[in-house]
Amino acid sequence: MAGGGEDKDIVMSPPQKKDDIVVLMDDAQLMRLAILLRNKEEAIGRQMKFKSPEHLAEYLDCVNGAYDHAVSLLRDSSHATSDAHRAAADDDDTRRVIADDLSDYIKWGLNYGMQNIRNCSHRLDCISKIRAHYDSVVAELSGRSLGERRLRELAEEMVAFKESMSQHCKNLRSGSSRALSKLYSMALKQENVKFPDLVNKHKKKLGFHGEFSELEEAEKLEVYNSIIDESGRAKVQKRKAIVERSKGVAVLVATAGLIVWDIYTAEHTLEATVHRTLNVLSDVGQFAVQVAVEAAVTDMLVDVELGVFVVSLAGFVVGTAAGFLFAAVSGLFMDAIFGSGGTAPPPVENVTFHKVITPPDGMALANRIYYDG
Question: Which residue range is the domain that position 341 belongs to?
Answer without folding.
Answer: 270-356
